Amino acid sequence: MAGTDRSKPVRAGGPAIVLVHPQLGENVGAAARAMLNFGLSELRLVAPRDGWPNDKAVAAASGADSVIEGVRVFQTTREAVADLQEVYAMTARQRDLRKDVVTPEHAATAIHSSLSGDQKCGVMFGPERAGLENDDLSLADRIINIPTNPGFSSLNLAQAVLLFGYEYLRAADQTPPLQHNDGDSFPATKADLTLLFDHLEGELRTSGFLFPPEKAPTMVRNIRALLQRARLTEQEVRTLRGIVSSLSTARQTGPKG
Fold it and tell me: Average pLDDT for residues 12-31, to the nearest whole number?
C-alpha cells in the first residue's frame, strides 16, 4: 500500500473509538483505516445496522486488519462504555446538555494525560445520518465539537474519526514543525561555503561583473547572503563550483563549433 513502510512498527493503543449504530460497513472500514493511520487500535461498535462481521468494512479498511480483527460489538451504548472511566462524545450539533464542550486538540491532550494515569478512555461517534442521541450523550463526560463551516458542518463518519486521530497523534508527536529534506547529502560546512564564495567572487571580478569598484563590497555581501539563505548541501556546493568553473572555461576558450 502506498505510504506504508512495513519495516517500521505499527503504533497501537489510545482511547477506544466507539461507533454508535453505524449504518454502512464501508464507513466502519474507512474509520478503521483512519484509526490505524494515527495509532488508534481499539474499535467498538454498538449495534451496527449491517451486522458484523462485514465484508465491505474489511475492503474499505484497506489493510487496517489489526483494527478490524479486534472489533468488539455491543448491543447498547451503555454496555460499550461500561468499563471506561472517561468518555468524550463527538457531535457537530449544539445541545442543551450541561457539559463542557472542547476542541479535538484539547480533548486529545486531556486523553493523553488520563491514559498516562492508567485511566481507560473512549470517544463516541454517532450514526452517519443523525449523529448521537441525547441518551448517548448523557453517558459522556465532555463533548468534542470540531470547528467547521457553520453553514455546512456535516462530516462523514470516517472524516470525524480521522480528525480526532490526527489531533491525538499530534498531541504526543515530536516532529519539528519545519524540516529540510536534503536527501543523502549533508548541509555544507562553512569552509565549503567560503571556498564557493571565494571562487565565485574571483570569477565575477575577472568577468567585470563587480562594477563599479566602489560598489563591489556591497554586491559581494549581498551575493553571500543570498547563498547563505539557500542552506546549500555539500553536493549543491560542488555543483555550483562546477558551474562556475564551466562558465569560466567557456569564457576563456570561446564558443565551440
Answer: 94
* Predicted TM-score (pTM) of this structure: 0.71
Q: Copy the grid coordinates of residue 220.
A: 559581494
CATH 3.50.50.60 fits 16-172, yes or no: no
Give domain limits for the chain. Answer: 16-172, 190-253
Report the pLDDT averaged over residues 156-172: 93
Contacts with 48 (C-beta within 8 Å, 6 or more apart), sequence order: 19, 21, 22, 23, 25, 28, 54, 73
Q: How far apart are CA 163 and CA 35, in angstroms?
A: 10
For 121, the enclosing helix (H) or strand (E) is: strand 121-125
Res 16 pLDDT > 90: yes
Q: At a CB cut-off of 8 Å and minimum separation 6, what does 180 contact?
A: 187, 231
Tally the C-alpha atoms within 13 A of residue 253's C-alpha that lie toward its C-beta: 9
Task: Judge whether 131 and 88 are in contact, CB under 8 Å.
Answer: no
Instruction: Give the tens place of pLDDT for each residue, 99-129.
Output: 889 999 999 999 999 999 899 999 999 988 8
- The highest-level CATH class for domain 190-253 is mainly alpha
Q: How far is CA 93 from the centre of its chain?
A: 26
The set of cell numbers assigned to 238 is 560542488
What phi, psi does 32 have (nearest 5°)? Answer: -60, -40
- Distances in Å between the Cα of 239 and the Cα atoms of 39, 55, 129, 223, 235 are 42, 55, 59, 17, 6
Provide the pLDDT for residue 129.
Answer: 80
